[in-house]
Amino acid sequence: MIWCAGWRLAAAVSEAGGLGTLGAGSMYPEVLRAQIHKVQGATAKPFAVNLPLLYPSIEEHLQTCVDLQVPVVITSAGNPSLHTMRLKEAGIKVLHVVSSAKFALNAQAAGVDAVIAEGFEAGGHNGREETTTLVLVPSVCDAVEIPVVAAGGISDGRSMAAALVLGADAVQMGSRYVATQESSAHEAFKSEVVKAGEGATTLTLKELTPVRLLHNPFYQEVLEAYHRGASRDELERILGRGRAKKGMFEGNLAEGELEIGQVASRISDLPSAFALTQEIHDSAIQILAS
How far apart are CA 178 and CA 92, in angstroms? Predict the structure, then answer.
């Protein structure tokens, strides 16, 4: 959710009864601090900050979360044993994103409060195992004793109910919330998500960091590089810097990296995040009751 999950989206989801989340991976330290203050000014309800551990400003981000008493931190893309205890000692709940039962057990051993089992369908940076949510969630639930949050391909009450039946205690949704009024994504990117059809995304760039992309001219450039046997160094040059910002935040649909999940093909509108959250919750409860 980098470039898509700013304070307006986080506050709206929390106000509706979900756990709104700031995507800190796209933020400089001073920006994250300002965003947290804005969330705190907009809602008194709990919210989270997502911290990809591979980002260069991770130490400053961690200290900001401690200083500003962020209730929940979601870590991803790194070793949870490095920072979990520091956060927990500050009274922060810690969740860690995993793509396998093995990683879930490692996260549990590191002391996290819950794991987020994210399947192959998910958008943005993903696991290399390509395990689908339908397979991953029950496998992780069987492996660990801590709560499990399901992620990847979840967009409505039906898919939320299905995840809970698989054994999950909660769900995490990213792609569905990109296409909301409060999302900080560029309107042009939101429109591309709404227009996406079946087969419009592919998980690629596994040699660098696996990412699921909408098929646009930049993706075609990557695809052509693979066809001619491009090296890792060449792929890094093609990716360059700031591709995700260019596409998702600035709306350059030709040269930008457009990260989104497979579920984009099921998104057809741009509701408010508040209304969407309540609709998904109420629908899931009704389905489970029947």
Answer: 26
Query: Domain check: are 66 and 52 in the same one?
Result: yes
CATH number, position 66: 3.20.20.70
Q: What is the rounded average pLDDT of the residues 82-92?
A: 95
More confident residue, 1 or 105: 105
Is there a contact between 138 and 87 (Cβ–Cβ < 8 Å)? no
pLDDT digits (tens, 9 = 90+) for 236-261: 999 888 888 999 999 999 999 999 99
Question: How many CA atoms does the CB half-sphere of 252 hold within 13 Å?
Answer: 12
d(CA 164, CA 147): 12
Q: List the one residue out of 176, 107, 103, 118 whose CA is nearest residue 151.
A: 118
CA distances, 290 to each of 70, 158, 160, 283 (Å): 37, 12, 14, 11
Per the CB < 8 A criterion, the answer to whether 46 and 25 are in contact is no
**Collapsed DSSP state (helix, strand, coil) of residue 111:** coil
The predicted-structure confidence for 164-207, as pLDDT tens digits, reads as follows: 999 999 999 999 999 999 999 999 999 999 999 999 999 888 88
CA distance 85 to 258: 34
**3-class DSSP state of 28:** coil
CA distances, 88 to each of 48, 61, 92, 93 (Å) = 14, 15, 5, 6
Structural domain includes residue 1: no
